[in-house]
Specification:
The complex is a heterotrimer of chains A (428), B (404) and C (338). Chain A has 428 residues and is mainly α. Chain A contains 17 helices and 2 strands. In chain A, helix 7 runs antiparallel to helix 8, helix 10 runs antiparallel to helix 16 and helix 11 packs across helix 13. The chains are: A mainly alpha (428), B mainly alpha (404), C alpha/beta (338). At the A-C interface, helix 7, helix 8, helix 10, helix 13 and helix 16 of A face helix 1, strand 4 and helix 7 of C.
Chain lengths: 428, 404, 338
């Protein structure tokens, strides 16, 4: 007798059927992410509407953009009543926007080259995977860049570099005798080197000369970049010293540092720029004349040093006190302990913070336009907007400036976030 | 065991100033102090040399001299015959005004953007991320100029409102958006309006009292009383009744185009709005990041625990997450306020007459007293920052987790 | 490693810092360049052209001084300055002279210790309005928004004028003349007020100059002239007499065109003294004998400078008016070259 299978039992699996449309793919995703609740639906619709309006008003303006022409009237002619941007201004004024209006056009390759080299020089600092040998180039770079951008004989930067190198070597040699002695000796050696080098520069005035460009002629986005990189790199050592001073248990040194940091952090950068512009000249010895860009560099450096000091102080505070004690118990003196044990760790933790300060500072370099320097914003507000040819071209120029800054700052801040993630994994 | 000789008993020699750790600190500090004093003296000497060489001096007498210029936005009485000191006070108040408004707007924008950035809604979250990144990574000066450009270039000027077929019209005949600012109707308080105001304040007090009563009852007896509808009724009804009973004592003054400009109503100058808006939208992006970080710092367990208690998502946010997140959010928030206040000194770029515009701008130009004025400016900002940091310290101490 | 950066910049600072100066004249000669402070851009008076070469009436004065002192009118470093920094820049030695349409006032001369060496343009403050407003007199401007450049005497004159006439206005302060112009053309203000010469320049820059009108009122005296630091009289003399040479040259009929002819000798001893073919005026100034020839050759005499940069045949179209020679009923008057 055949065993009859009960009709209500299946003897084979039913084929897998695809999940309902509402639970898969785009539909499910949209349901969960866009339309999960009434509030969400409203928000989705509102956002879509906002995006659409924005797109609708900007797209024709952007797509109709005119890229050729010598004045805003040419643009109007080509557009013939339609809405559209006049990007021709960017094309015609490109050199002015990037290099300012006085940097000699035949020398544009120099800042360009310096910018490319900057990327190479900064790589070993930013990425630990890059060969450490490149650090050598990083050390040489500031002098090379100075020569490239300002011009003159190469002997000047070489002598300056030699002095620094001698100073570092001398102080390394003497480090075990104490920090103060090492620093003093280094300084004396450097001074001797520079004085003798000075004669050498005087003799070899025509050795490997690039046409020199006075700093007054720097302008445009180049000026922002110069101010940003120079001031940040100068303020890091100053910031380290301030942070160490603030951590110090010597009350006088501590209070000097605290007062300096709190003072600088308490006033807006613009007042410091006013100082550079209208006051600082009174504090230099009579009859010397230091040009504006240098005064501005001094003030911005002091400004960012105070902020960087606070970041590094955070890094120092994050170190367990066992590190300090371990360094002491090894018999290292203060300078050695700092250089070999404390600072490498503290700086590593502070890099994201320092990068954030650097981004902020780079953005703040636009403030120099208020004291009538022709950086990117200054160029736009001054010579370009006021020229008869481009009167009324407003959005194109500021959108361009915003875009340039966005690209650079966003890039750097993405780097800092990446770095933060790297550091996080190291910790756990 | 042989104890080492007590080092403090050793005879003091001068070499110990460098070699002995206990005394080296004094040597260092002393040297630092000397260097500092010398540096200061050097700068001071240069200053006096420079000043005498040019026959100038340092003097604050100019503050008592009539300023001679006019200021468009003045919160206290001021004419061109008032002193420079008075002009600086006008500037100080204008700075505080823009900083105050800016902080409020920035907080609102920042909190919304920060919370929405964590929203489940993909498109909203992405939009907020774009907002934050775009605004954080472009200099605030460029934003100020762009927003003020909207006023200068994009909005219609009063002359467009003129004529038979004007290019621009007022919104509901009450609001005018012009390149010179935004005009809105102003309430006029006639006789009897005090009744309405008092009634309104009383009903506000009644709402609070009722809600308190309801909460106490809820906690004590577990009986929930309705709160929403009674509150709304209390808010509107008595005031409206008294308003009509007193014969509509509160009227509206509408802005009108008279002569060159709109007259009447409330007028917010373009420069104020541009500066305030640009500052708050820029700072808002930073605050949004702080808020996001603060919320993410609260462990997910808190959300899950609240959800397990059966709370609605809005309750979870309001009652569980935000109160805890505030502890993390508020310190950076206050330093953002500080940044905003300091950034308000960029007012000079849009011609808003804050302290940098009056004292640091026109007064400096007219009197040429650069050193004195820059010192005063720094002092002003320093006082503001130090008082804000003092407030922050007090707050930080008060919210420290109290361990029992 | 980073210390090297500091030290490198310190050397750079050392290289950039100027040497001590005995007198401005020696200093300029040693440097081989004249540092001249000018406006950041004012059509007709000081403006870089498309290739970045500065042009204008004030620029002409700078070039004349450079030519007189150094023999080369192009040996000038132009330093564009805003109203805020112009006096500081002069006092700190950043510039040797300021030719930036600056009004000669008591306070600037006496309290700020500046030395005005003369007047190269007699100006007065006026008002520019769009024709469409239908305004014919400044007293009808009650309630108007007025663009003013901050830090100038115009700001004070404006306050006084409206106070005296007991009418109200809304001041819209802007940093530079260019910005004021932009705001005015965009309609952010109804009126633009500044020196009449600059108004002419602003009107010339309008898309259609005929739609704008300069009101008849001139509410102030604005003698504009080059200035130097107090206390260096030798240098002050050089700038003063270079300006006077340009003025005298026009009065005496010496132009850049006929100068070569006149250098050969004329019957007029004053022309001979001016051009250095007779007497030792140049030597007394500490310059070469033909200093005035260079100055005049740089951009022509006063009249030529005026006509080429701001005169009736230029977009500015300013007539001589007060700035005519005294012989023609104007105020331009040079002391004798004797």
């Amino acid at each position: 007798m055949t065993h009859k299978t009960a009709s209500f039992v299946r003897n084979e699996l039913i084929p897998e059927s695809p999940p309902p449309v509402s639970e898969t793919g785009a539909v499910k995703w949209m349901r969960e992410n866009l339309f999960s609740s009434p509030l969400n639906i409203i928000m989705t619709i509102a956002s879509l509407w906002a995006v659409y309006t924005l797109f609708n008003s900007v797209a024709p303006w952007f797509l109709n953009g005119v890229w050729s022409g010598n004045s805003v009237r040419d643009c109007y002619e080509i557009l013939d009543g339609a809405t559209g941007a006049c990007f021709a201004v960017l094309k015609e004024r490109w050199p002015q926007l990037i290099y300012g209006f006085k940097y000699p056009p035949s020398e544009f390759w120099r800042p360009n080259f310096a910018a490319v080299l900057l990327c190479v020089a900064i790589a070993p600092v930013l990425f630990s995977t890059v060969s450490k040998k490149l650090f050598l180039f990083t050390v040489v770079y500031p002098f090379l860049a100075f020569w490239l951008i300002w011009g003159g004989t190469i002997l000047g930067p070489i002598v300056a570099f030699a002095g620094c190198a001698v100073a570092v070597l001398a102080s390394r040699r003497l480090e075990s005798y104490g920090f103060a002695l090492a620093a003093l000796c280094g300084f004396v050696c450097a001074l001797v080197c520079w004085i003798f080098g000075g004669y050498l520069v005087d003799i070899g005035k025509d050795f490997l000369v690039l046409p020199s460009v006075p700093s007054r002629d720097m302008g445009g986005f180049m000026l922002n970049l110069i101010l940003g990189t120079v001031c940040v790199s100068l303020s890091i050592p100053l910031g380290i010293m301030l942070a160490l001073g603030r951590q110090s248990d010597m009350p006088i040194i501590k209070w000097i540092c605290v007062c300096f940091i709190e003072f600088i952090r308490g006033v807006p950068l613009i007042t410091l720029l006013f100082v550079a512009n209208v006051v600082l000249a009174y504090f230099f010895p009579p009859d010397t004349n230091i040009d504006l860009i240098l005064r501005v560099i001094i003030m911005i450096t002091l400004f960012s040093a105070a902020y960087i000091a606070e970041v590094i102080r955070g890094g120092l505070a994050a170190l367990p006190s066992g590190q300090f004690e371990a360094a002491n118990s090894l018999g290292l003196n203060y300078a050695q302990a700092m250089r070999l044990i404390i600072l490498p760790q503290a700086l590593k933790v502070s890099i994201p913070g320092i990068v954030n300060v650097a981004v902020g500072l780079f953005k703040d370099t636009t403030l120099v336009s208020i004291i009538s320097m022709f950086d990117l914003v200054g160029m736009i507000r001054g010579p370009i907007l006021s020229s008869t040819a481009w009167n009324g071209v407003y959005w194109e120029l500021f959108a361009f400036a915003a875009l340039l800054f966005f690209v650079v700052c966003y890039g750097i801040s993405q780097y800092s976030q990446w770095l933060e993630r790297q550091l996080e994994t190291d910790h756990r | 065991m042989v104890l080492p000789t007590d080092p403090s008993a050793a005879k003091f020699t001068f070499s110990m100033l460098i070699n002995d750790k206990r005394y080296r600190g004094y040597t260092f500090q002393f040297t630092a102090l000397i260097i500092l004093i010398f540096a200061m003296a050097y700068l001071g000497w240069n200053l006096t040399q420079n000043l005498t060489a040019k026959g100038l001096n340092i003097s604050y007498q100019f503050l008592k001299v009539p300023a001679g210029y006019d200021i468009n936005q003045r919160l206290i009485e001021y004419t061109s015959q008032s002193t420079h000191l008075r002009a600086s006070m006008v500037g100080v108040l204008n700075t505080l005004l823009v900083a105050f408004l800016g902080c409020i707007m920035a907080t609102v924008i920042g909190v919304f953007a920060g919370i929405l950035r964590l929203s489940n809604n993909w498109i909203v979250a992405k939009l907020m991320a774009i907002y934050v990144e775009v605004f954080r990574n472009v200099p605030v000066l460029i934003w100020i100029l762009i927003v003020s450009g909207i006023f200068i270039v994009a909005l219609p000027q009063p002359r467009s409102f003129r004529g038979e077929n004007p290019e621009a019209t007022m919104l509901w005949d009450a609001f005018a958006f012009t390149g010179r600012g935004i005009y809105a109707p102003k309430p006029i308080f006639n006789e009897g309006s005090s009744f309405v105001i008092v009634t309104f304040l009383l009903s506000l007090a009644a709402i609070f009292a009722y809600r308190r009563y309801a909460r106490n009852k809820l906690y004590a007896e577990g009986v929930p009383l309705p709160t929403r509808w009674p509150s709304i009724t209390l808010f509107f009804i008595p005031a409206i009744i008294v308003f009509f009973a007193a014969g509509s004592p509160i009227g509206m003054e509408y802005p009108e185009l008279k002569g060159f400009n709109f007259k009447g109503g409330i007028w917010a100058r373009g420069s104020l709005i541009a500066l305030c808006f640009a500052l708050s939208i820029y700072t808002g992006a930073f605050i949004a990041e702080n808020v996001r970080a603060g919320i993410q710092a609260i462990s997910k367990g808190q959300t899950e625990a609240a959800a397990a208690l059966g709370m609605r998502p809005s309750f979870v946010m309001n009652l569980v997450i935000l109160p805890q997140a505030l502890r993390v959010i508020i310190p950076p928030l206050i330093s953002q306020y500080l940044n905003l206040t300091k950034n308000s000194s960029l007012a000079i770029a849009v011609g808003y007459m804050d302290i940098t515009g009056t004292l640091g701008g026109i007064t400096l130009n007219q009197t040429g007293r650069a050193i004195e004025i820059v010192l005063l400016l720094m002092l002003f900002y320093l006082i503001i920052s130090l008082s804000i940091s003092a407030v922050m310290n007090v707050y930080n101490n008060s919210i420290k987790l109290k361990e029992r | 490693m980073k210390y090297s950066v500091i030290l490198g910049t310190m050397t750079a600072a050392g290289l950039a810092a100027g040497a001590a100066m005995a007198g401005t004249l020696d200093d300029v000669q040693a440097r081989g360049k004249l540092n001249c402070g000018v406006s950041t851009g004012l059509t007709g008076f000081a403006e870089p052209d498309a290739s970045g070469v500065w042009q204008g009436f004030d620029i002409g004065v700078c070039r004349a001084v450079a030519a007189a002192v150094l023999g080369d009118p192009m040996a000038v470093e132009f330093v564009p300055l805003t109203t805020k920094v112009r006096f500081t820049a002069l006092n700190s030695g950043e510039i040797d002279m300021l030719a930036r349409n600056t009004t000669w006032t008591f306070q600037r001369d006496v309290e700020l210790k500046l030395e005005f060496v003369g007047v190269n343009y007699y100006d007065g403050q006026g008002f520019l309005v769009p024709k469409a407003l239908g305004v014919s007199s400044a007293t009808e401007l009650d309630g108007a928004s007025i663009c003013i450049q901050t830090g100038t005497t115009t700001e004070l004159n404006l306050a006084d004028f409206f106070r005296v006439n007991n009418i109200s206005y809304e001041p819209i302060p802007v940093e530079t003349g260019n910005e004021a112009k932009q705001q005015y053309f965009a309609g952010a203000c109804d009126v633009y007020t500044t020196d009449a010469s600059a108004l002419a320049s602003a009107r010339a820059a309008a898309a259609d100059p005929n739609t704008h009108v300069v009101l008849p009122e001139i509410i102030s005296k604005e003698p504009l002239g080059p200035l130097v630091r107090h206390g260096d009289n030798e240098w002050g003399d050089v700038v003063r007499w270079t300006l006077n040479a340009l003025i005298s040259a026009e009065e005496l009929g010496v132009t850049s065109g006929n100068m070569a002819e006149m250098v050969k000798g004329t019957n007029n001893p004053e022309i001979n003294r001016l051009l250095g073919t007779e007497g030792t005026l140049g030597e007394w100034l500490g310059l070469s004998a033909d200093w005035a020839q260079h100055a005049i050759a740089a951009g022509g005499n006063y009249g030529e400078l005026f006509e080429n940069n701001i005169g009736v045949n230029t977009p500015l179209g300013i007539s001589r008016g007060l700035n005519a020679q005294w012989t023609d009923g104007g105020l331009i008057y040079s002391p004798p070259f004797r």
